[in-house]
Structure formats: structure tokens, C-alpha cells
Design brief:
The complex is a heterodimer of chains A (472) and B (320). Chain A has 472 residues and is an alpha+beta fold. Chain A has two domains: 403 residues, no CATH class; 63 residues, Dna Ligase, domain 1. Chain A is built from 13 helices and 23 strands. In chain A, a hairpin with a 2-residue loop joins strand 8 and strand 9. Chain A is globular, with a radius of gyration of 23 Å. The longest helix of chain B has 31 residues. In chain B, helix 1 packs antiparallel against helix 9, helix 10 runs antiparallel to helix 18 and helix 16 packs antiparallel against helix 18. Chain B has 320 residues and is mainly alpha-helical. Classes of the chains: A alpha+beta (472), B mainly alpha (320). At the A-B interface, helix 2, helix 9, strand 7 and strand 9 of A face helix 1, helix 6 and helix 7 of B.
Chain lengths: 472, 320
């Protein structure tokens, strides 16, 4: 992929600064490099001291790493954000409608829009959920939709994360850090605030309490301190002022969920769970789960407790269902999709498979159930041996893979060892569904710090940036 | 509040208090070891060694001898300061306190977490030579200051809720235990000879003990007189205006338990009341007649039982 053809968030092709970046560019040019270097070092120290770290799987236990933070913000003009926001609302509304449908009447399958095997034969489809009434018909209370900008600057949805999307704490901490390091920047431009996210989240969660509960008790259920996102769990619980519970803190009696407190058992109404479906209840799902709560699913089915997100949402963010989302928008809302999908080849389809196998060197191949940037082949940068390995894997189980064209992700100037250089970025806004759909302007911008790399995942050397949505 | 949260917070402050008191104990041991001593009782030479004392009063003698064959100042210091395999070493205590805080960041203030995390990040890379070069007493002072800092931040920033009460409960339970153990140091530290009782070395030892409990000045203010063992014991056991005394600790423990108890969890409060009453109405003459060492041993047993009961009722309850 020729490097020159990517869209640069800050500069026009002729090298001049895009208007919405001008105040920042002026500030950067007028600020001593020493001061910036000192502030960057300060940010490192503060992140360490505050303990914003994440655990890396597969490394020595107890390893904590900082996610690199870059001080060049990713700036989005008001007009572009307006379009993104409308598109995101539309998309999440659709996905909720889809989930409700497939666990009830399955109209979309009857209408022949999504093939039944894509849904019912999907390992993420949970038959246990069919017919279960969830409050307000909402399944994905928190969605993290990954968006990239490619080519001439068009936005595409890369992935809908509807299970337990993480990263919102970095969005909030990055903003706090920028305001602490460079308060003067915020007087030059009017940046939309994001700090009220925890409040919106709490409101959303309270809004989906079981029928008849007027003052619901909300808790956040974490797998525990060894989870890579544990920092975020504590952060959100603290910001919302709710208890951070582990499976061992909860128990179920007569289909009611209680937590163990110093004042005895106390009822729990809404559980914002950051544990995967499989581990939530050893009686209903994985028997070996030590993280879950025995009997929780039964209480959930009985409508005595709300789980957010609902169980079985994974089927809607599955990579093999993703290609159908634009059709879903038309089907459920009768609207034209605002956000674009990346063209996706389903390797289970013979004609797609033939094409992909002939063009492996140009495409990105992903496992349908993979996540975190693992289990993927980036054709243009892969070795011949790696491509051959994937060819064999695809032929062995084509339904496990999809392929997409290699997008030339947009890049944003970033501090690297050699100075400031463009690095590829994506964007994950967080969309909340409760009584209504809400979101804060912006999201988490992740940046691939290695030159030319398209992998932004923090587990693979990605960093983050503060994301500014400018107010109109 | 979640029982697990109460448990973590209680142990967070206990571990920090323990780190502080271990530093105090090693500090006094170090001071006493600078004095000349001679073994006077056959068969008890190990006990006469100043560096054996911290092992005896922490109950870690056998753990120590599993790892070290010889009793030496360096070994004991390493074992009680830096040894990660010793769960009561200062290093392990700071780590455990920080881990507990990390689990409960939502229940404490950011300032508390930042302070504990900072303490741990500074302690983690320390090695024995670095500490020895910097000066042992300076290191002990650092540990004490970090503990003072956390307590001050807690006092100055935390909402007066249940979390605060369990943090304080941990502090006072640990301090009561540690003060009792420290007082017992003197019992285990032999004088060069029986004729030295009341002599210069004896005086030095009692004043070192007072200093290690931040009580030297208080003693002067309260008694305005020579240092006598009975008065030291009175100050550190019965005076409730002396913040590290057993009576002062039990005042707080009892008050806190009254606040957090309900009808279903009244046993810890009752036990604490019993211990408190003995301190409140006790007389030093009786204690000395009973035997100071025996009295302290009994006290340690009682608060051990109280600790177990607090555990059962609040921290790790089991619901059938």
C-alpha cells in the first residue's frame, strides 16, 4: 500500500494545515520543544502515579504497562461529528432492534434478509435468550463502534462492539491529562466536554431497571483485579458511585440477586457486567467459571435483575453478520444507512472465497470470532509463509473467516522517537442505550505507534490520543 | 458496603500500620543493639541477642530459621524489611496495602491511592545496600512518614462513611496488637546483669522504647520525673490521651464497632467492650502484680479473638 495515499487528519495534501487544526498548529509551532518534552515526561509520571495501567496477557503475572499517551489531539470538526453521531444513533438503534427480533419473532430471517444459519447457527447466538423479555427491549446498553477514516476522508464502520467494549476510561483520562498539561489549548478552541459520560452511563443503567423498581441499585460486575481492563472497572464504579462487585460478592436466593455487605444481604437490580457471557453463571453456562454467580441467569430470565449488556449480543457484532447491518437499517427503520460498511467478503461463499484466495496479498483476513487484533492476516505486510498458512486455514474452515480490502487508514501527527510523524488512527465512540440513546462527543482515538502499522490495539503497541469534537 | 470492600480496606490500613510499627520496632532494636550486652543466663543466649527480639515479638522465629542459619543484624533486617517471602516484612506490607487499595480504588479517594501507589513504587526497587547506605534510621523514618501521610490524607479527604470506619478499625486493631508486642520487647531484652536494673542501660532501654512509640515527650509532660518501668507501662497501656496506648486504641475500636454493629452482628462490639472496660478501669499496680508479660500475652489473645470475630461478622460473612 503506498504510504502517501492516506488521509492526513491535520494536513492537506499540499502541506498546509487544515483549518480546524490551525490553532493547535500555531500553538505547537510557538511552544518550546523543551517544554513539550517536559510535559510529555510529566504525563508519563502522572499516568503511573494515578495507576492508569493495563495488564498484558501472556506476560509475567502482575505486569502492568502504561498505554502510551500522545499529546497531539485528534480533532473532529463539528459538522463531521454531527453526521457521525446521527449515523451511530441509527446504527445502535438498528442493532438493538435486530437483537430483539432474532430472540423473538425472527422477522428478518423470515423476510430473507439475513440467512438463518448466520444467526441460528452462530456460536454467539444464545438459544437460552429466546423469548426472554428484557427491559425496554434493549440489549446493547453500551456499544463501542470502531470507526476509521479512509481514502479521501470518508468514515467507515470497522466493527460494532456490543459485548463488553472497553476503553472509555482512557477517553476520560486523556482529556483530564490534556487539560492538566496544556490548559491554554482549551482557551483557543471550544472543545466539547466528555466528563459527564459516567453520569450518562448511570442514568442509562437506572433507566433499564426491572419493572416496578423505582430506586434501583446498580452494581458493576468485574472479573477481578487480573483482568486487563480492571482499572476501567474501578474507575467507572467510582465515577458512578456504585459498588464494584466480583462474582463472590453476589448470591442468588429465590431468583433475587443480593450482595454481601457489612450490613447483611442487599438487593441488586441492575448489573453492568464486564464479564463475558460464558462466565456469568456456572449453572447456566461454563461450569468451570469461578467469576460468575450461580443462579444469575435464572434470576435474569425471571426478570428480577437486568444485565447490561444483555446476554447473547455477540451475534450482532459478529464479523459474519456485520455485512448485513446496512440492510438491517433499511429493514427495521426504513432509513438509508448513514455510516458506511467496509466491503466484506464472506469466505463461506464460494465466489467470495475464490476471489479472496486469488488476492490474499491485497486483503485483510480476520477470524469471525477474533478480537483484539489477534488472529488476523494483513496481506500487504505478511510474508509468503504467513499467507500460505492462512490459505490452509481458510480452506480448512472457510466459515470462520472474512476478508476486507486493506483500508488506507487516516493518520494523525504523533510524537515518535524521530520527532512528529503521521501514524494511523481509529476512533471508538461509546453509545449508551437506556430510556434514550445518548453519547458524549468524540470517543477514544487509538493510534498505531509503529510506522506504517495499522494495528491500533493497546495489547499490540497501540497508544491513545485525546479526541476533540469542536463545538459549532 | 460490600464485605469484600470492608475486608480490603481494613487490611490496607492494617498492613500500612504494620509496616510503620515494624519500622518502629527495628528502630528500637537497632538502638538497643548499639549498647554493650553480655549473656547472663545459660541456655537463653538466643533471647539475649538484641536481634532475636524482633523475631520473638513478631512470632517469626521459626520462619526465620527456615531461611537463615545464623542470627545476624543483616539477616534479621533483610528478613523484616525487604524479604518478599516474609508476608510481614515492610516490603510485603507495603505491597499488600497497595494491592488492597488497587482493588478498592472506588472506595478510597484518589489522593489516598496516589500516595500508597507512590510509596510502593518507591519501595519496590530498594535493595539492602541502598537502604544501608542511606542510613537505616533514615529509612525507618521514611516508612513512618509514608504511613503518617496516608493516615493524614485519609483523615483529610475521606467521606466519614463506613469505608472510613473500617479503615480506622484496621489501624487501631493493628496498633493495639503492635503496641502490646513492642512493650514486651523489654521483657525479652536482658540487661547486662541483674545489678544493672535501674542503671544507665536500663534507663536507656526504657527511653528507647518510649521514643519508638513517640512517647518520650509525652512521658516528660505527664510525669515530669525519672523514667520508671511502671510509669512507662501505665502510659502505654492505660493512659487514653496517649495515642498509641492500648486504652486509646481500644477506645476507637469500641466506638467504631458500636457504629457499624447491628443486632445481628453484636458479638465484636461486646468483646471490644469487655477489653475496653479492663483498660478503662484497670490499675497499673494490678497489672504489674499480675506480671506485665503475662498481661500483654493475655491482651494479645483477646484482640486476636476480637479480630476473628470482626472477620466473621463483617469481612468474610457466610450466608447459608
Amino acid at each position: 500500500m503506498p504510504e502517501a495515499c492516506f488521509y492526513n487528519e491535520m494536513f492537506l495534501p499540499d502541506g498546509s494545515v487544515r483549518p480546524h487544526y490551525q490553532p493547535f498548529a500555531d500553538w505547537l509551532a510557538g511552544t518550546e520543544p523543551d517544554r513539550i518534552a517536559q510535559k510529555r515526561a510529566e504525563a508519563d509520571v502522572m499516568f503511573h502515579r494515578v495507576g492508569i495501567t493495563f495488564a498484558v496477557y501472556g506476560e509475567e503475572s502482575g505486569t502492568e504497562r502504561l498505554i502510551p499517551f500522545d499529546i497531539v489531539p485528534r480533532i473532529i470538526p463539528a459538522r463531521e461529528w454531527l453526521m457521525l453521531e446521527q449515523g451511530l444513533r441509527q446504527r445502535v438503534k438498528t442493532l438493538n432492534a435486530f437483537l430483539h427480533d432474532i430472540y423473538h419473532d425472527q422477522e428478518i430471517i423470515k423476510a430473507g434478509i439475513v440467512p438463518p444459519e448466520k444467526v441460528l447457527g452462530n456460536s454467539e447466538y444464545r438459544p437460552e435468550m429466546s423469548g426472554v423479555a428484557v427491559p425496554k427491549g434493549i440489549y446493547c446498553h453500551v456499544a463501542g463502534v470502531d470507526i476509521v477514516r479512509a481514502g479521501e476522508g470518508e468514515y467507515y464502520v470497522l466493527e460494532d462492539n456490543l459485548r463488553v467494549p472497553s476503553g472509555v476510561s482512557y477517553m476520560l483520562e486523556d482529556r483530564k491529562m490534556m487539560m492538566r498539561l496544556f490548559p491554554e489549548l482549551f482557551s483557543k478552541q471550544s472543545v466539547a466536554p466528555v466528563d459527564h459520560y459516567p453520569y450518562l452511563l448511570l442514568e442509562s443503567l437506572r433507566g433499564v431497571a426491572p419493572e416496578g423498581v423505582s430506586d434501583p441499585t446498580v452494581v458493576l460486575l468485574t472479573p477481578g483485579i487480573f483482568n486487563s481492563a480492571y482499572f476501567e472497572h474501578t474507575f467507572l464504579a467510582q465515577q458512578m458511585g456504585v459498588e464494584l462487585v466480583e462474582g463472590q460478592d453476589l448470591f442468588v436466593r429465590d431468583n433475587m440477586v443480593y450482595m454481601r455487605t457489612t450490613k447483611g444481604p442487599r438487593r441488586v437490580d441492575v448489573i453492568y457486567r464486564r464479564i463475558d457471557d460464558d462466565f456469568i453463571d456456572p449453572q447456566a453456562f461454563r461450569k468451570d467459571s469461578m467469576l460468575g454467580v450461580p443462579g444469575l441467569f435464572s434470576a435474569y430470565r425471571a426478570g428480577k435483575v437486568t444485565l447490561a449488556n444483555a446476554l447473547g449480543t455477540g451475534v450482532a457484532d459478529d464479523k459474519s453478520v456485520y455485512p448485513y447491518v446496512p440492510d438491517m437499517v433499511r429493514f427495521y427503520l426504513g432509513e438509508t444507512p448513514i455510516l458506511k460498511n467496509v466491503h466484506t467478503y464472506l469466505l463461506a461463499k464460494p465466489e467470495d472465497r475464490d476471489f479472496v484466495l486469488a488476492h490474499l496479498a491485497e486483503l485483510v483476513v480476520k477470524e469471525v470470532h477474533g478480537s483484539g487484533g489477534y488472529g488476523m492476516l494483513i496481506g500487504p505486510t505478511a510474508s509468503a509463509a504467513q499467507r500460505e498458512e492462512f490459505r490452509q486455514r481458510i480452506l480448512a474452515a472457510p466459515e470462520k473467516y472474512i476478508a476486507q480490502p486493506t483500508l488506507s487508514l487516516s493518520a494523525c501527527p504523533t510524537f515518535v522517537e524521530s520527532g512528529v510523524a503521521p501514524r494511523h488512527v481509529d476512533l471508538r465512540p461509546f453509545i449508551l442505550s437506556g430510556r434514550e440513546i445518548t453519547l458524549v462527543p468524540g470517543g477514544l482515538t487509538r493510534v498505531a505507534l509503529r510506522e506504517g502499522s495499522l494495528v491500533v490495539n493497546s495489547s499490540q503497541g497501540g497508544g491513545t490520543k485525546d479526541t476533540w469534537v469542536l463545538e459549532a | 458496603m460490600l464485605s469484600r470492600t470492608a475486608n480490603d480496606l481494613y487490611w490496607m490500613s492494617r498492613y500500612m500500620e504494620r509496616a510503620e510499627n515494624t519500622a518502629r520496632m527495628l528502630d528500637i532494636t537497632y538502638r538497643m543493639s548499639l549498647l554493650p550486652y553480655r549473656i547472663v543466663e545459660e541456655g537463653r543466649e538466643q533471647w539475649a541477642e538484641p536481634w532475636a527480639v524482633p523475631l520473638i515479638i513478631t512470632g517469626l522465629v521459626s520462619d526465620y530459621y527456615e531461611r537463615y542459619s545464623e542470627l545476624s543484624a543483616d539477616n534479621v533486617l533483610f528478613f523484616l524489611v525487604l524479604d518478599a517471602r516474609n508476608p510481614s516484612s515492610i516490603y510485603s506490607c507495603l505491597q499488600a496495602a497497595r494491592e488492597a487499595a488497587r482493588s478498592q480504588r472506588g472506595a478510597i479517594t484518589p489522593e489516598m491511592w496516589e500516595s500508597l501507589n507512590h510509596t510502593w513504587l518507591e519501595a519496590r526497587p530498594m535493595d539492602f545496600d541502598a537502604i544501608a547506605n542511606r542510613g537505616l534510621q533514615e529509612f525507618f523514618e521514611w516508612v513512618k512518614m509514608r504511613s503518617h501521610l496516608l493516615r493524614g490524607i485519609t483523615f483529610g479527604t475521606m467521606l466519614r462513611d463506613e469505608a472510613y470506619l473500617f479503615i480506622r478499625l484496621g489501624t487501631y486493631m493493628e496498633r493495639a496488637d503492635n503496641t502490646a508486642r513492642l512493650l514486651d520487647v523489654k521483657y525479652h531484652t536482658l540487661l547486662p546483669s541483674a545489678s544493672d536494673v535501674g542503671g544507665a542501660v536500663d534507663y536507656y532501654q526504657w527511653s528507647a522504647l518510649l521514643r519508638s512509640l513517640s512517647g518520650f515527650q509525652a512521658y516528660r509532660k505527664v510525669y515530669r520525673d525519672a523514667i520508671t518501668p511502671m510509669r512507662v507501662a501505665e502510659l502505654l497501656i492505660l493512659r487514653d490521651d496517649m495515642p498509641r496506648s492500648l486504652h486509646a486504641c481500644m477506645n476507637d475500636v469500641y466506638e467504631i464497632l458500636k457504629q457499624v454493629s447491628e443486632a445481628r452482628s453484636a458479638e465484636p462490639e461486646r468483646l471490644a467492650g469487655e477489653i475496653h472496660a479492663q483498660l478503662h478501669y484497670g490499675r497499673i499496680e494490678q497489672i504489674v502484680a499480675f506480671g506485665l508479660h503475662e498481661y500483654l500475652t493475655d491482651f494479645l489473645g483477646s484482640i486476636g479473638t476480637l479480630g476473628n470475630e470482626i472477620n466473621r461478622q463483617f469481612l468474610t460473612p457466610v450466608y447459608a
